[in-house]
Amino acid sequence: MTQTPEKRSRRKFRIERLMGRYVANPTVRALNRIGIGTTLATELETIGRKTGRYRRVPVAATFDDTGAWLISQHGTRSGWTANITADPRVRIRHGAHWRTGTARLEPGDDVDARTRTFTSHPDFAAMTAATFRALQSAPISVRITFTRNLADPPQGSR
């Protein structure tokens, strides 16, 4: 019996969500807690759409002078993109610092081209894009525009 593309996509999403929730996310959180950062993932903090509580999730991001790009591998099915849709105010860890910003989904952005910018060396761009494609079910690009500079004093801690 052959599965429809929609059923495969839902199954892939469920498997990826379980792996993220119980393996990847706790591992990245534990590493961050003991001071070991990774260039493969950073933390994104959103405001929960149902609870109003702060939610942190590891994400892959690429930074520029005015903001950051992220890719939600499962589009709007992802909890953090649903949180952004409800309240676009976010914080993202940029190295050792937290940056505040406003996030928006960018459905018109070329996800395949965007994934090639997530590598530190051009020779790895195709491999990075292939890895993202293997893990995604309904990808969408997300743009975070910073609302204050790193040199600005902190506005209080969450």
From TrEMBL:
One of its GO terms (molecular function) is oxidoreductase activity. It comes from the Bacteria. InterPro entries: F420H2_quin_Rdtase (IPR004378), Split_barrel_FMN-bd (IPR012349). This is Deazaflavin-dependent oxidoreductase, nitroreductase family. It comes from Rhodococcus koreensis.
